[in-house]
Design a protein that fits this description.
The complex is a heterodimer. Chain A is built from seven helices and ten strands. In chain A, helix 5 runs parallel beside helix 6. Chain B is an alpha+beta fold. Classes of the chains: A alpha/beta, B alpha+beta. Bound molecules: adenosine-5'-triphosphate (ATP) and magnesium ion (MG).
């Protein structure tokens, strides 16, 4: 495994935010490597820069310095449309606040992930398979009977399961989860985490999980701690 | 195009009620464009056709006061593009009617000039147009005018018959527009004028006068053959000191019929047609006097059919140049006007009205475009979080922008389709709708009588429908570009954390 390059890597990644005239350093050179099939927990105090790092790794934002590499190739400087395409192929995001589109049903929210890479005609041609795949995923996360519910009609745990299904539909290599259980009670949280880990196991995904929960971190293969914009352990 | 753009655009469209407002705005603007422009185009082309019928193709005017027709005719008709010409003599005069009143039954006559109405729109004043009834039909549709006059009056409930004066087989009588002997004889008796006892002994002497049909407002009781006194004033001579002497003259004419040229406002309401020879005599140019000239103020010219606009324009300058040397030294330049120039005041008023309407309609379009802009802008602001989510799932900025562009386009297309359908229905059934409103609601959409129209004219050109619909969609896309760019350029991280 060590011979192949890490699916996701950060090399000396820096990020500053400009607030008026002040330059606020949030990340000051973060090095991180995640290999396929690896579960990594990212811990750190609030404000340490965990979410910021996740956004940079997921190509939602550009680093101020350093490099982000996918499968050993630098990707942080690609044009914006190319980064969008890579993000879609490579990464699935799961957020603390689910981030589902309120107008769409659970099924449509998941299907949206399929509509990113295909053209209108292309999607029309494969819409049956796409629906079948989305349904299968929603059934796998235990929402087979909630396909046509809007997010507002679902509980927090159910919404997070929809978000997980959406993150997985495009079959990414990496899942970046930012406090996915932060908004759930412990029982629900455990259910969601069990589900994520089982799918991770099944698909051999790389998993980067931001959390404040030491217990949850303990279930991961590796724990990375951050403080003030650097990795400390 | 990524498949999510049209998918989400459609979702947003269906879920956001505010889009109905935009759609309605576009539909209204398109509807108004089609109906108003359709009616206006129809109206203007009808008016132009009418005005066209009321004027000769070309008119030579700006002649000195003592110009004779014969030499002009020779010069003008020598041109290969001129088919024929007709003399015209304009002057002003007053019409007085000899009216049989209730008193008339006891043998008294009552002279009135006319019934003066308070609205200042009609009176006995007349712009006299002396025409040669033998030549005039070659330059304007004179017989058509005599059918049209009674036709217009029938719309107002009168029952006149077309005048028979042009049907007279005797050219001398026709040249004087004379009514049949029997008609004049009866009219004389009606007016209590001395006349032969027996119709067989009577020969008509009054020349005829043709009145524009709107004058019926002053002469409701007028019957064919009734005497009308025409009074003119002119300065034909000078006294010993060289000062001009005002001479008035009057003589009875027989009412010979109503005409309608198609140009009510600028012609029918003001003009009275009289035989040119009679008018010349009234102005002091006795036809039996060998010294007298065959006086004209204008010459109506009929050019060859099928000349291009450029050829007509060239002919105008050519004829004016050819005539100028005949007018003597020091004469002001004469001009040859085409039919549009002859009616320039009227036509430019109509055109101005149309461009005013177009400006108003353009503003309606702009307002509807602004409504689209506002709703799209609002949607982008409301959907900031969705924009972040889409970016996180892998949407490109272009794809995100297109969601809003497509939404605006769909709004405009649906609105334009509704507006086109409504506009088409309204213009097709415009007269039925107007009839219904008039009968059941007492409201009239379009004052037909004001414009002397039987039906509301309406020409809806397919090219105009397409232009309006495409313009509405184009305008919607254009204004949606701004909010769409805003959405596309949004920082996804900030959008995701937006509260
Ligand atoms: N767009 C921004 N502009 C300015 N400062 C920012 C911006 N985004 C983040 N920061 C700052 O960067 C620091 C790190 O933020 P980040 O969200 O990465 O922390 P975190 O480790 O995820 O914290 P938490 O555990 O509370 O989620 C914070 O101090 C935050 O104020
Ligand atoms: Mg965070």
């Amino acid at each position: 495994m060590s011979t192949s390059p890490p699916v996701l890597a950060a090399e000396g990644v820096e990020k500053h935010f400009r607030l008026g005239r002040r330059d606020i350093p949030v990340l000051r050179g973060v090095d991180l490597q995640i290999h396929a099939g690896e579960k990594v927990a990212l811990l750190g105090a609030s404000g340490a820069g965990k979410s910021t790092l996740l956004h940079l790794l997921g190509l939602l934002d550009k680093p101020s310095g350093g490099r982000v590499l996918y499968d050993g190739a630098p990707v942080h400087d690609l044009p914006v449309a190319e980064r969008a395409r890579l993000r879609h192929q490579q990464v699935g995001f799961v957020f603390q606040f689910y981030h589902l589109i309120p107008e769409l049903t659970a099924l449509q929210n998941v299907l949206l992930a399929r509509m990113m890479a295909t053209s209108v005609l292309g999607y029309w041609g494969q819409r049956k398979q796409a629906r079948a795949a989305a349904k299968a995923l929603l059934e796998q996360v235990g929402l087979g009977d909630r396909l046509h519910h809007r997010p507002a009609e679902l509980s927090g745990g159910e919404r997070q399961r929809v978000a997980i299904a959406r993150a997985l539909l495009a079959e990414p290599k990496v899942v970046l989860a930012d406090e996915p259980t932060g908004n759930l009670d412990s029982t629900t949280a455990k259910g969601v985490v069990d589900l994520m880990f089982s799918i991770q196991q099944e698909r051999g995904l790389a998993f980067l999980l931001v959390t404040h929960d030491e217990g949850l971190a303990g279930r991961c293969d590796r724990v990375v701690r951050m403080r003030d914009g650097v990795v400390v352990a | 195009m990524q498949a999510f753009s049209p998918f989400l655009a459609l979702r947003y469209l269906l879920i956001r009620r505010i889009n109905l407002l935009s759609m309605f705005g576009v539909a209204f603007a398109v509807w108004a464009m089609l109906v108003v422009d359709g009616v206006f185009t129809g109206f203007v082309s009808d008016i132009k056709a009418n005005v066209r019928d009321s004027a000769p193709a070309l008119l030579l005017t700006g002649l000195p006061h003592d110009t004779g027709y014969e030499q002009l005719r020779e010069t003008l008709e020598r041109d290969q593009d001129v088919v024929t010409t007709a003399p015209r003599l304009r002057h002003h005069g007053l019409l007085q009617a000899t009216m049989r009143s209730a008193l008339g039954a006891r043998g008294q006559r009552l002279q009135v000039s006319s019934e003066l109405e308070f609205d200042h729109s009609d009176n006995g004043f007349a712009l006299l147009l002396g025409i040669d009834p033998l030549r005039e039909p070659d330059v304007v549709p004179l017989a058509g005018w005599l059918r049209r006059g009674p036709a217009e009056l029938r719309r107002y409930g009168y029952q006149p018959e077309p005048s028979p004066v042009l049907d007279d087989p005797d050219p001398t009588r026709r040249a004087l527009l004379q009514v049949p002997d029997e008609v004049e004889w009866r009219a004389r008796r009606r007016a209590g004028l001395p006349t032969e006892r027996e119709l067989a002994d009577f020969r008509a002497v009054w020349p005829g006068v043709l009145l524009g049909w709107p004058r019926i407002r002053s002469f409701r009781w007028l019957q064919e053959g009734d005497p009308l006194d025409l009074l003119v004033a002119a300065f034909p001579t000078t006294d010993a000191a060289g000062d001009a002497v005002l001479r008035t003259d009057s003589r009875p004419f027989a009412f010979a019929g109503w005409f309608g040229s198609g140009n009510r406002r600028m012609f029918d309401e003001t003009t009275v047609l009289v035989p040119i020879e009679t008018l010349r005599t009234l102005l002091g140019h006795d036809i039996h006097d060998l010294e007298s000239i065959d006086l004209v103020t204008d010459v109506a010219i009929r050019p060859r059919d099928g000349l291009s606009d450029a050829a007509i324009a060239a002919l105008q300058t050519r004829l004016a140049a050819a005539v100028q040397p005949l007018l003597g030294d020091g004469a002001l330049p004469c001009v040859v006007y085409d039919w549009q120039q002859q009616n320039s005041v009227f036509l430019s008023a109509v055109e101005l009205e149309q461009s005013m309407m177009e400006i108003v309609l353009f503003v309606v379009m702009l307002v509807s475009a602004f409504v689209i802009y506002a709703t799209m802008h609002m949607m982008v602001v409301q959907k900031v979080k969705d924009i972040g989510i889409l970016a996180a799932v892998g949407a490109s900025p272009g794809g995100i922008g297109r969601v809003f562009l497509l939404c605006a386009l769909a709004v405009a297309m649906i609105g334009a389709a509704l507006g086109t359908a409504a506009g088409w229905l309204c213009t097709t059934y415009l007269n039925e709708i107007d009839d219904f409103m008039r009968e059941h609601l007492g409201a009239e959409l379009f004052p037909r009588n004001l414009f002397d129209l039987d039906r509301i004219p309406c020409h809806l050109a397919p090219s105009w429908i397409v232009t309006v619909a495409v313009a509405a969609c184009g305008l919607a896309l254009l204004v949606a570009l701004v909010p769409a760019r805003r959405a596309a350029r949004m920082n996804p991280v900030l959008a995701l954390s937006y509260e």
